[in-house]
């Protein structure tokens, strides 16, 4: 039996099997992907199972429980086991480790044994098995083993499983983890003070002068409750030396508590921005789709406000903290980050939910990086970009920008129009900005629309007092037809540009889709 051959064939088969990858991706999503709505349902289910099984374990100590509750607990424990196995599976790609190791050996012209290939894969899995959360998951299963009632104290570990399913508790754990050096120092100080104080009180009062201190553990107990400033009063020193050390112990206890409070407060303050960012990412991920504006300068502000007036969902990314705060005050979802960072773009699901993006920073090189990052996530993303230097226009368009806009040139043309034909330009300006009726709007033709495969003459345009200014044919690379003839037949994705009263346009749209 050639185990090495089977191992390699299995590893390459898994790497080529798309069904396997899809199943693994789904399991990862429901267990580990914080932004997945499916994971939230799984988390709620697991929290419910943890709490109810703990309640069963507590109630059975003094009550006879019906048999179905034990069946329910058994099912819950099976789910806990399956969850642990699922996490063990998705935490790493063992088959890839085997393939990579084999290709390394092949490159070095070494003929590896079965165990030489399997060892790196086992290491990856073992690393997860001995991780703190994995150990908690395993220990949480043991209290269900009835013959060993001593294992009931492991009930605590089942309760600790809840940390895995709640972001706020996980955040608290991260705070303690990042301040572990400070907390270790604090623990050493606490341990030293307890040992020092308990030794002294034991020497002076365990000789019979204090009937409540009979052994060293009593002395430790007294030292702990005194340092923690709890002081139950069940053990009190009777000698002058004991009272003297108690004074210093209380002062030391206050100092330790103050130190601990300071550490936690500092850690929480440092993490506050991270919490806000996490909340923002959750809000963005709730959106079905959005428009991304990179750069909240003058152009970004005006564009965002116009989109907001049209009830569009807008997400803003800017590296400048002041601009981000200003955007948030105007009720936009704004993130302080580098918009060219592909990981940030992936976190807000630009590859799935982005309708189109607008790069409006003051740097052409940054706008170019943003375009390349967005295109790397999704090559079909529609991107508009600001050009600050005319020479950069071709580079931005070559990178994937659908349109590169030079704002100063556009402003100069608009100013010239105001000077040469001020009245006409003012009227057009009012129409474009929808300050007053009539307004201009787009009507897209879909397969569900009554306009599909119909001529313009067959549409109720006159009935709604509208005028067709033009038509954009998306299937012909967005070719624009100015004032198309009435016989023009409409196809899917055509966009009619109409002008008229706001209410008439709305009624026209309703008429096209009304059943």
How would you describe this structure to a colleague?
This protein is an alpha/beta fold and 515 residues long. The protein folds into 4 domains: 3-165, no CATH class; 180-272, Helix Hairpins (Orthogonal Bundle), CATH 1.10.287; 289-405, NAD(P)-binding Rossmann-like Domain (Rossmann fold), CATH 3.40.50; 437-513, Alpha-Beta Plaits, CATH 3.30.70.1450. 60% of the residues lie in helices and 10% in strands. The chain is built from 22 helices and 10 strands. The protein has helices spanning 3-16, 18-31, 37-59, 67-90, 94-107, 114-129, 132-141, 155-160, 162-165, 167-178, 180-205, 216-227, 240-286, 298-309, 321-329, 342-347, 350-353, 364-377, 393-399, 407-420, 422-432, 502-513; strands at 290-294, 314-318, 333-336, 354-359, 382-386, 403-405, 439-444, 467-473, 479-482, 495-500. A 6-stranded parallel beta sheet has the order 3-2-1-4-5-6, sandwiched between helices. The protein has a 4-stranded antiparallel beta sheet with strand order 7-10-8-9. A hairpin with a 5-residue loop joins strand 8 and strand 9 (479-482). Helix 1 crosses helix 6, helix 3 (37-59) crosses helix 4 (67-90) and helix 4 (67-90) packs antiparallel against helix 7 (132-141). The protein is elongated and about 110 Å long. The two termini are 68 Å apart.
């Amino acid at each position: 039996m050639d185990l090495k051959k089977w191992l390699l064939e299995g590893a390459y088969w898994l790497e080529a099997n798309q069904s396997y990858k899809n199943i693994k991706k789904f399991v990862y999503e429901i267990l580990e992907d914080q932004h997945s709505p499916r994971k939230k349902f799984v988390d709620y289910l697991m929290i419910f199972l943890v709490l109810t099984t703990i309640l069963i374990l507590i109630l059975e100590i003094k009550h006879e429980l019906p048999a179905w509750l034990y069946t329910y607990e058994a099912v819950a424990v099976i789910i806990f086991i399956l969850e642990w196995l699922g996490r063990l599976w998705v935490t790493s790609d063992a088959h890839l480790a085997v393939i990579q190791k084999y290709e390394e050996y092949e490159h070095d012209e070494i003929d590896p044994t079965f165990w030489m290939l399997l060892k790196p894969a086992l290491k990856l899995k073992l690393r997860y098995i001995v991780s703190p959360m994995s150990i908690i998951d395993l220990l949480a299963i043991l209290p269900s083993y009835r013959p060993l009632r001593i294992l009931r104290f492991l009930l605590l570990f089942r309760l600790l499983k809840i940390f895995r399913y709640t972001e706020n508790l996980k955040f608290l754990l991260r705070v303690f983890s990042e301040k572990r050096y400070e907390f270790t120092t604090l623990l050493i100080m606490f341990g030293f003070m307890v040992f020092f104080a308990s030794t002294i009180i034991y020497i002076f009062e365990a000789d019979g002068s204090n009937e409540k201190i009979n052994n060293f553990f009593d002395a430790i107990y007294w030292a702990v409750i005194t340092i923690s400033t709890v002081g139950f009063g069940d053990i009190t020193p009777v000698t002058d030396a004991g009272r003297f050390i108690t004074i210093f112990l209380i002062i030391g206890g206050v100092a330790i508590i103050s130190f601990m409070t300071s550490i936690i407060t500092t850690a929480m303050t440092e993490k506050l921005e991270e919490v806000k960012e996490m909340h923002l990412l959750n809000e963005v991920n709730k959106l079905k789709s959005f428009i991304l504006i990179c750069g909240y300068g003058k152009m970004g502000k005006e564009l965002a406000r116009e989109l907001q007036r049209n009830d569009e969902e807008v997400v803003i990314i800017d590296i400048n903290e002041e601009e981000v705060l200003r955007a948030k005050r105007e009720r936009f979802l704004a993130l302080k980050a580098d918009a060219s960072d592909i990981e940030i773009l992936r976190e807000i699901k630009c590859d799935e939910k982005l309708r189109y993006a607008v790069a409006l920073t003051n740097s052409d090189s940054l706008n170019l990086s943003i375009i390349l990052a967005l295109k790397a996530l999704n090559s079909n993303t529609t991107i508009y970009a600001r050009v600050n230097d005319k020479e950069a226009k071709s580079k931005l368009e070559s990178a994937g920008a659908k349109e590169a806009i030079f704002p100063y040139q556009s402003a100069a043309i608009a100013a010239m129009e105001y000077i040469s034909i001020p009245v006409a330009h003012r009227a057009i300006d009012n129409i474009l900005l929808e300050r007053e009726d009539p307004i201009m709007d787009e009507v897209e033709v879909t397969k569900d629309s009554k306009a599909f495969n119909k001529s313009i003459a067959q549409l109720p345009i006159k009935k709604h007092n509208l005028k067709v200014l033009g038509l954009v044919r998306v299937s012909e690379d967005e070719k624009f037809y100015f004032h198309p003839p009435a016989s023009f037949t409409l196809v899917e994705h055509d966009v009619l540009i109409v002008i008229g009263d706001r209410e008439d346009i709305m009624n026209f749209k309703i008429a096209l889709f009304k059943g």
